[in-house]
Amino acid sequence: MNKKDIIICRCEDVSLEDLHNCLEEGYTTFEDIKRILRIGMGPCQGNTCGLLAQREIAKYLKLPLSQVKVHKVRPLITGVKLKAIVENNKNES
Amino acid sequence: MRELDLVIIGGGPAGLSAAKIAAESGLNSLIIERDYKVGGQLVKQTHMFFGSEKQYAKTRGIDIAKILVNDVLAYPDKVEIMTETTVVGLYKDNVLTLLQKEKYIKIKAKAIIIATGASEKFLAFENNDLPGIYGAGAVQTLMNVHGVLPSEEVVMVGSGNIGLIVSYQLIQAGVKVKAVLEAAPTIGGYKVHASKLKRLGVDILTSTSVKRAEGKDTLEKIIIAKLDKNWDYIPGTEEEIIVDALCISVGLSPLTSLLSMVEADMKFVNYLGGLVPVINHQHETSIKNIFVAGDVCGVEEASSAIVEGYFSGLIVAERLGYKHPNHEELYQDFEAQLENLRSGPFGEKTRLGLKELRGENNAE
Question: Crossing angle, helix A30-37 and helix A49-61, to 10 degrees?
Answer without folding.
Answer: 120
